[in-house]
Predict the structure.
Amino acid sequence: MTISMYQSLVPVAIHNLKNLSAILKKGEEFAKAKKIDETVLINSRLACDMFPLTRQVQIACDSAKAGTARLAQIEIPSFEDNETTFAQLQERITKTINFLQSIKPEQIDGKEDLKISYHQRNKDHNFIGQPYLLNYVLPNIYFHITAAYAILRHNGVEIGKKDFLGN
Amino acid sequence: MTISMYQSLVPVAIHNLKNLSAILKKGEEFAKAKKIDETVLINSRLACDMFPLTRQVQIACDSAKAGTARLAQIEIPSFEDNETTFAQLQERITKTINFLQSIKPEQIDGKEDLKISYHQRNKDHNFIGQPYLLNYVLPNIYFHITAAYAILRHNGVEIGKKDFLGN
């Protein structure tokens, strides 16, 4: 086994999105057990000017799919940001995992020096493959999954670091 | 440039610990500006059965130093868990970064298949180098740094994802 760009990203993102899915499942069960409208949890935030749970899940998925597609030099699959239920968030995660699973190692491996340039939110972004992966894509995935975890944890859902790390 | 075990861990951990240090600095300044005893922030939690800020910072540091030392097959530097001020947390981060900076690429590179076994908290832990790095060490570092970020963010400290990602 040798570490590679693909190994560092695609199986890692799939693993963490599956953990996020399991965490959200516990959130959904918590809402049902407590007879709480699920939109209360879905719209919950840690600070009033911080993104709610839905948006954290959307961006976690988007970080994984955009990062992978840009390194693979293929079009980024576009998903509408319209989820309002746990079931819809699960669908988004599944669609993201399906896309990640369609990527072959040779599409990502060897892209350490790839120049990546794009325009987003009125800004030019310029990256090089390896730092893009290590200092942008992976931290973004972990940041938004941990934020989703923290929102549910703060609201009383019984989850622990084991759920975040998975098997 | 080719991705390697060292590149995926040591510079990444140093970069993220520096970001954590900058985030804590903003927390300290916030406490001063609001005339809040810094121990209020230091002991703040997102849930009453979740670790407070201090412990999140301690474990972020410990995940980085233990993960690196185990892959380098050297003794893990031991730090006492006795920080009660922002200044002391900064010292712990500095000591951790100093240790990480003492590690040479050849001490970590090529350790993909290394068998790692240790006993901790009444449990045997058995890992293989690459999954240990990708599925245990890195997620732990990101999890605890994001948790520290989220505690400060929840308490009103003006930080954003840019502070988490750094330059």
